[in-house]
Recover the amino acids of this structure.
């Protein structure tokens, strides 16, 4: 898995919570290569811990 | 989350951290250390056998210690990647002991104790810091007994308790005796808004008020027998889209009592473990002891503990609260002190989810400027499509998924059974069908047996359908001729104890899968060309930001402004907080930039009509027509114009905050109004906000604005009083400014909507104000040379009416445009290709508007940076010969995909715009003649499943 | 799993009716919720069969009536919670359709307990399992549908 | 193939002269060039019923009998279609049902003897009905239409049932309304579901007999046809006297007190009431007898009336809408403000044709015969 870094033209996103994921997805959608780095073993961050969000009561995951 | 895990442009590096960082914007080198996981992500299938066999049980941090996990574990059920990890601190396999249970249990040899991790050197053009926040540890406030008393929980712990997949399966029980509590206290501002011995941070954590209100509603929903919920707070900070309305709804809940006051302490009854909350109700002055069964502390948000180290590595600075510092000169909340490094969400301070999401998109837009985009991954030329006409020849592939399926279901008997289903031409089983080897086998058999429909009985289509579809496509079988039967997640995993019944169920499921497969039709992705330009409507701060970002990415941009000049409301303001920037200067810089850019500015221009869809909008304006691929709406909002409220229309010295702003704009140093310096100024908050007559929502911007103006006046020696309902300090540093205003001697006096302050005048002008001080229970008589009404924001009705009419973007009950999703899609709309920025979707401050402008630009760029957009083929289509043009479909589609078109001779027929259709199939369910076909979920397919499930029962 | 145990079967004199329930689950919430129950290994009654649709708004009265006609003892339509619909208001449309279905089923004289519209989110595996268990229990007690040609018993 | 020969013989198909009059008059042929009764007969003749089984057009025939009306040799084309459908259904063939087949599912369920319906909730206290008696009011599918269409259209199907009872009460009849009356089965009969239809006929006749009644009144032409002519076909002579409400109104007109209801109306002959039961004049006479009502005739009336364009909830499409529009235009051209029909289904189809926005609307009011009469009743 230890891929050698490719050519320049990528963005490093630090943090795999809701904001990090959103930034990574937006960049990726514009054909930008993204490295999404998360300290913990999984993406999801704080939001994954919440049950529902206000005011729409959506499920948080 | 899963999308990020699957996107070909995103490489997810979990369990990793940045250790070194050097270089220049556009050309950084980042060194990332991957800590060992001890489980190979490529081999692990997430089957869970290792977890079952692991003997170590430790508390689960995801459940905040309330649940348990093993030493080999997956952090939570939907974790991405769905790979297990070994927690070596708790693993038995250290130098002395050998357990090896997990290694032995893994069929795929994915466990590797010798994993050393890796260090990666990555060349990157920019960095987005989105490391979020940490939760305040409430045990720092001993008087609340968190960590000492069993029944004192943090709000995060409550979230897990409320969650159906949490440690208590969604049942609310008190930790001490596992009984359902009758009475719960919710205590706000734990770790927020303080600075004494027992306090955390000065700032307001912003998320806790609404989170706790939400929890109250959820608690009641989960446990209808709850008798009382007592909510202790100081100011109710419901300042977000729909938040005030949400709070107002909670007031109707009979079980919920709001008490204004911050408890001084909680004591536990050692025997019953009940809790006693000591509090003064500041509205009545009454001190009471309230007995509850459980207390929930709304713990605030604090800077991440790794921020120090990360700031050092990145070479950026932190603010006094250890959040990443935002460079104030841009006015937007995205720039750190180092160019090329951007920040979003709670890494830079407190933001709620929708603001964080906007900022994330905005940061993405900023970062994009420093990278060369890689061309989209070249798709491998697929094999020529095979002929699938003729009678169905269904292939059924049964996956063992190790022992996940085969350990429960009798796969052998299923194989035999499937061979007997009509039209089934071939059946095969495999240990791991999703493995490379399994996929190869499937491809071989499809070719060998000339299969023209494929059914896989395996795990869930939600994760694996794309994998199988791709395998089909590779060998030329149309991917939509593949059907998946979920015999793992929805059968073997949940009926483990009854293998025979589960096997019988699997038989039914396979039979119905084959029934559907018989009727599957090949479908083809279509792509439509995209016009690579953008229209930005509105030349205010949000619109200008969007236009500049898009232009910086090399896009063709049209910026339309109804007024004769750019700048919007910004030009009318004096200074912008928190950085005390000159608003005029900020506006001037932006306007200059736009003028110097290739943005095509059209002032004094209005839109007449827009037709088309994503990638292809035709725009007709009073200043010519053109085509664009995407549209950003940034038309802002209006300031509420008071009528006779507080004698506004009678007295000249009753003015709005906007009028005061104009006065302050013209003066330097000493305040001078008509040649006089006022001695006493009184502000009245929530004029035209939080009222069902005008605007039920909170306008957000007025409290910080009042604070800003009050400080300005007070610094010039004016006596200032602010009459408010709750001070809502939205925005960076607003709470600190609130504190500063108090320190300067600005008086803040609370009133209730039942008893509004009275403006008393002499017939010509206001002279004083009477307001009841609640705690003192006395009428205060405050002299006032000027009364300033903090007028809220209201939608610009004429503009929004017109735009809604033209673009069919829905508006919410409050009249502002509705986002696609309040949290997850704050700048998107339900109309694909149309985005929102700034106050057009509800009140926002300048920083938020700038962030949203950038965010909308990022979203728009994602569309117009491509030549084409690919359309998912599982949409709805009309069979015109059956269509009666009754219009049912037109009326019900929220995406405006169906429309009636004239076919000449006065006969109409419905057509569904494939670019707009999302494929939900709701129109098909309403179509009286069956003219609408929901592709891949047709009536025929569903009916055939029902037939076989019920008629061919064994 | 390796150490699977079978619950001891209770010998009861009367044979217990096993209902035959058809479930329509929307792709984004309820089907995902059912998966979530699986991921968490939340055991529940097996006496139901799921048909996946993209949205609960797709479920016409005709699908429910057809299931009942063919002898299903009960039908569950499950979608996203309000405000949570992947298609904005699809679940509100589902309510409208279901109201019609209810009116028809009531006129047909079938017990209204036999049809249900429920909301289960993608994270609510526990809720899914509870819902299924409770519904199966309810229909077991109610007994076979009068239109079920061959009710099954334990 | 023998079965097919039998059907052809019974329905006089061999006599076809291939003159094409049927196709020239067929409303479906006018809107769907692929459809031709003559060609379908020819196909049956040369290739047998087998050839028609997989043909979707088999299910398009309205069985409105306009063709038989014109046929010089009296080929019973509608009946022939029906017989072929029996065969086709047994082979698993089926048309394209409207509303996803919701109404068919209900009709098919009605054949289950175990069904205990709940269909009399619309009977309010002011309506006088009985458990047992001499006269049964056979309601038909109105309670189901109410649930399925009551919210979509600006009319209440059940108001037809309520007004029928009001009229009957007015002339001194307290009818029996059957709690467990089943769908009359008319559509199943025409769609070739023989066994289910026979089952339904038996269940309904049993129910009627239990009430002690010997006379059945209905406000639905299809129910009238089913009870009067189709039930004896499958269940033998039942000795029941079956009447359409317009016949009852005419017989009792002298006992009725009708107030002034000025209105210009035109009357749609439902094919079942007209060509099947030859009830043409009773509705016209009674409508015209309401003070103030003036009746205008459309060019196509009585035996030559055009069908409402859809039947059996089957194969409804764009062509059906054209038939409906043409008929509504014809009605409007008479200068009448209201088109009165005596069939609840006609009304549903005509109203559906008026959906879809103003540009597609003919813009004529549509009302049921019963509602018009009842609105004029005076105490």
């Amino acid at each position: 898995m230890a891929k050698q870094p490719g050519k320049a033209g990528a963005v490093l996103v630090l943090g795999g919570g809701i904001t990090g994921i959103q930034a990574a997805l937006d960049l990726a959608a514009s054909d930008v290569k993204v490295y999404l780095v998360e300290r913990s073993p999984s993406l999801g961050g704080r939001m994954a811990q919440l049950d529902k969000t206000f005011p729409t009561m959506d499920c948080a995951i | 989350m899963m999308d990020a895990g699957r996107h070909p442009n995103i490489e997810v590096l979990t369990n990793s951290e940045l250790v070194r960082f050097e270089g220049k914007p556009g050309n950084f080198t980042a060194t990332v250390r991957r800590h060992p996981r001890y489980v190979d992500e490529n081999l692990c299938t997430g089957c869970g056998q290792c977890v079952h066999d692991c003997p170590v049980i430790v508390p689960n941090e995801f459940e905040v210690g309330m649940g348990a996990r093993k030493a080999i574990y997956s952090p939570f059920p939907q974790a991405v990647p769905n790979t297990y990890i070994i927690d070596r601190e708790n693993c038995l396999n250290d130098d002395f002991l050998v357990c090896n249970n997990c290694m032995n249990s893994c069929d795929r040899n994915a466990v590797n104790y010798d994993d050393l991790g890796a260090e990666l050197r990555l060349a990157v053009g920019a960095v987005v810091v989105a490391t979020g926040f940490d939760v305040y540890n409430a045990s720092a406030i001993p008087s609340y007994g968190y960590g000492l008393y069993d029944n004192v929980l943090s709000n995060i712990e409550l979230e897990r308790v409320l969650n159906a997949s949490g440690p208590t399966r969604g049942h609310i029980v008190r930790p001490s005796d596992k009984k359902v509590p009758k009475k719960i206290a919710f205590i706000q501002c734990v770790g927020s808004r303080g600075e004494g011995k027992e306090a955390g941070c000065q700032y307001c954590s912003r998320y806790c008020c609404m989170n706790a209100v939400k929890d109250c509603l959820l608690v009641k929903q989960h446990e209808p027998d709850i008798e009382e919920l007592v909510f202790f707070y100081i100011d109710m900070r419901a300042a977000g889209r729909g938040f005030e309305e949400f709070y107002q709804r909670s007031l109707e809940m009979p079980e919920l009592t709001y008490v204004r006051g911050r408890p001084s302490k909680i004591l536990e009854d050692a025997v019953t473990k009940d809790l006693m909350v000591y509090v003064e109700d500041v509205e009545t002055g009454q001190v009471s002891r309230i007995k509850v069964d459980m207390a929930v502390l709304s713990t605030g948000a604090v800077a991440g503990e790794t921020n120090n180290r990360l700031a050092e590595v990145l070479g950026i600075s932190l603010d006094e609260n250890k959040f990443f510092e935002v460079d104030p000169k841009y006015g937007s909340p995205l720039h750190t002190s180092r160019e090329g490094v951007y920040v979003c969400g709670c890494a830079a301070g407190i933001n709620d989810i929708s603001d964080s999401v906007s900022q994330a998109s905005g940061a993405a837009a900023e970062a994009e400027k420093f990278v060369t985009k890689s061309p989209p991954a070249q798709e491998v030329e697929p094999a020529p499509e095979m002929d699938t006409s003729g009678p169905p020849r269904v292939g059924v592939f049964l996956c063992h998924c190790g022992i996940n399926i085969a350990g429960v279901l009798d796969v052998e008997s299923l194989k035999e059974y499937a061979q007997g289903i009509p039209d089934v031409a071939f059946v095969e089983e495999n240990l791991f069908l999703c493995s490379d080897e399994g996929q190869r086998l499937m491809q071989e058999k499809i070719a060998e047996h000339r299969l023209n429909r494929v059914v896989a009985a395996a795990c869930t289509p939600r994760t694996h359908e794309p994998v199988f579809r791709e395998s089909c496509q590779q060998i030329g079988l149309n991917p939509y001729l593949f059907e998946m039967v979920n015999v793992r997640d929805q059968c073997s995993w949940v009926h483990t104890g009854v293998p025979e019944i589960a096997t019988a169920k699997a038989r039914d499921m396979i039979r119905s899968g084959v029934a559907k497969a018989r009727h599957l039709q090949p479908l083809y992705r279509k792509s439509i060309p995209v016009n690579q330009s953008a229209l930005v409507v509105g030349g205010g701060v949000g619109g200008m930001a969007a236009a500049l970002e898009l232009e910086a990415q090399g896009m063709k941009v049209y910026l339309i402004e109804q007024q004769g000049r750019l700048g919007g409301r910004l030009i009318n303001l004096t200074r912008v907080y928190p950085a005390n920037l000159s608003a005029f200067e900020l506006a001037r810089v932006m306007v200059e930039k736009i003028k110097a850019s290739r943005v095509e500015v059209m002032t004094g221009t209005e839109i007449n009509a827009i037709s088309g869809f994503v990638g292809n909008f035709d725009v007709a304006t009073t200043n010519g027509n053109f085509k664009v691929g995407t549209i950003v709406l940034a038309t802002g909002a209006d300031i509420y114009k008071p009528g006779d409220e507080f004698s506004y229309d009678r007295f000249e010295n009753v003015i709005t905050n906007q009028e005061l702003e104009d006065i302050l704009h013209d003066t330097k140093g000493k305040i001078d109004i008509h040649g006089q310096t006022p001695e006493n100024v009184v502000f009245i908050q929530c004029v035209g906000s939080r009222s069902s007559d005008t605007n039920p929502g909170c306008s957000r911007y007025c409290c910080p604005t009042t604070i800003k103006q009050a400080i300005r006046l007070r610094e010039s020696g004016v006596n200032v009083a602010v009459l408010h309902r709750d001070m809502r300090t939205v925005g960076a540093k607003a709470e600190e400014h609130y504190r500063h205003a108090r320190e300067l001697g600005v008086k803040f006096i609370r009133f209730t909507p039942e008893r509004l302050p009275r403006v008393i005048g002499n017939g010509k002008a206001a002279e004083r104000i009477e307001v009841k001080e609640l705690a003192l229970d006395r009428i205060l008589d405050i002299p006032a040379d000027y009364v300033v009404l903090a007028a809220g924001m209201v939608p610009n009705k004429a503009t929004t009416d017109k735009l809604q009419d033209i673009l069919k973007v829905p508006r919410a009950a409050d009249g502002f445009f509705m986002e696609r999703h309040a949290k997850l899609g704050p700048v998107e709309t339900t109309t694909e290709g149309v985005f929102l920025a700034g106050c057009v979707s509800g009140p926002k401050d300048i920083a938020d508007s700038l962030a949203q402008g950038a965010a909308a630009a990022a979203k728009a760029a994602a569309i117009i940076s491509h030549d084409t957009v690919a359309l998912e083929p599982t949409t709805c289509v009309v069979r015109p010969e059956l269509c009666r043009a009754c219009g049912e479909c037109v009326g019900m589609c929220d995406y405006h995909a169906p429309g009636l078109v004239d076919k000449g001779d006065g006969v109409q027929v419905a057509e569904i715009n494939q670019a707009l259709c999302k494929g939900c199939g709701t129109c098909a369910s309403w179509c009286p003649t069956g003219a609408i076909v929901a592709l891949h979920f047709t009536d025929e397919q569903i009916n055939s499943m029902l037939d076989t499930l019920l008629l061919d029962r064994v | 799993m390796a150490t699977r145990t079978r619950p001891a079967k209770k010998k009861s004199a009367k044979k217990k009716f096993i209902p035959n329930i058809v479930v329509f689950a929307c792709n984004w919430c309820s089907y995902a919720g059912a998966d979530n129950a699986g991921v968490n290994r939340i055991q529940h009654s097996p006496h139901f069969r799921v048909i996946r649709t993209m949205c609960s708004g797709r479920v016409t009265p005709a699908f429910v009536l057809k299931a009942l006609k063919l002898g299903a003892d009960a039908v569950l339509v499950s979608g996203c919670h309000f405000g949570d619909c992947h298609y904005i208001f699809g679940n509100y449309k589902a309510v409208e359709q279901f109201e019609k279905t209810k009116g028809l089923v009531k006129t047909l004289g079938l017990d209204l307990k036999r049809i249900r519209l429920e909301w289960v989110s993608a994270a609510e595996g526990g809720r899914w399992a509870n819902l299924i268990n409770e519904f199966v229990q309810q229909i077991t007690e109610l007994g076979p549908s009068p239109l079920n040609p061959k009710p099954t018993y334990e | 193939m023998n079965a097919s020969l039998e059907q052809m013989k019974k329905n006089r198909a061999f006599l076809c002269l291939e003159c094409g009059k049927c196709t020239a008059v067929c409303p479906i042929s006018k809107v769907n060039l692929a459809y031709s009764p003559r060609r379908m007969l020819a196909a049956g003749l040369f290739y047998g019923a087998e050839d028609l089984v997989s043909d979707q057009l088999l299910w398009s025939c309205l069985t409105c009998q306009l063709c038989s009306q014109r046929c010089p040799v009296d080929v019973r084309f509608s009946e022939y279609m029906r017989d072929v459908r029996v065969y086709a259904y047994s082979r698993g063939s089926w048309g394209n049902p409207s509303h996803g087949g919701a109404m068919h599912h209900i009709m098919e369920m009605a054949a289950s003897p175990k069904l205990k319906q709940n269909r009399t909730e619309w009977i309010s206290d002011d309506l006088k009905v009985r458990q047992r008696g001499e006269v049964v009011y056979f309601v038909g599918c109105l309670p189901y239409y109410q649930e399925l269409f009551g919210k979509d259209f600006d009319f209440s199907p059940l108001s037809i049932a309520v007004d029928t009872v009001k009229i009957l009460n007015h002339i001194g009849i307290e009818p029996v309304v059957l709690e467990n009356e089943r769908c009359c089965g008319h559509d199943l009969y025409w769609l070739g579901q023989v066994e289910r239809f026979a089952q339904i006929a038996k269940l309904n006749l049993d129910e009627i007999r239990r009430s002690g009644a010997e006379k059945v009144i209905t406000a639905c032409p299809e129910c009238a046809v089913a009870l009067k002519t189709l039930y004896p076909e499958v269940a033998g002579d039942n000795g029941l006297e079956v009447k359409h409400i317009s016949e009852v109104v005419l017989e009792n007109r002298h006992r009725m007190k009708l107030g002034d209801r000025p209105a210009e109306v035109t009357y749609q002959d439902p094919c079942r009431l007209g060509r099947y039961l030859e009830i043409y004049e009773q509705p016209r006479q009674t409508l015209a007898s309401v003070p103030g009502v003036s009746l205008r005739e459309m060019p196509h009336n009585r035996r030559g009336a055009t069908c409402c364009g859809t039947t059996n909830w089957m194969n409804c499409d764009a062509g059906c809408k054209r038939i409906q529009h043409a008929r509504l235009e014809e009605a409007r051209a008479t200068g009448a403000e209201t088109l009165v029909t005596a069939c609840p289904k006609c009304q549903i189809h005509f109203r559906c044709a008026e959906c879809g926005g103003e540009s597609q609307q003919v813009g004529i009011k549509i009302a049921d015969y019963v509602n018009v009469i009842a609105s004029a009743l005076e105490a």
In short: Chain A is about 20% helix and 25% strand. Chain A touches chain C through seven residues (CB under 8 Å). The radius of gyration of chain A is 14 Å. The CA atoms of residues 28 and 34 of chain A lie 6 Å apart.
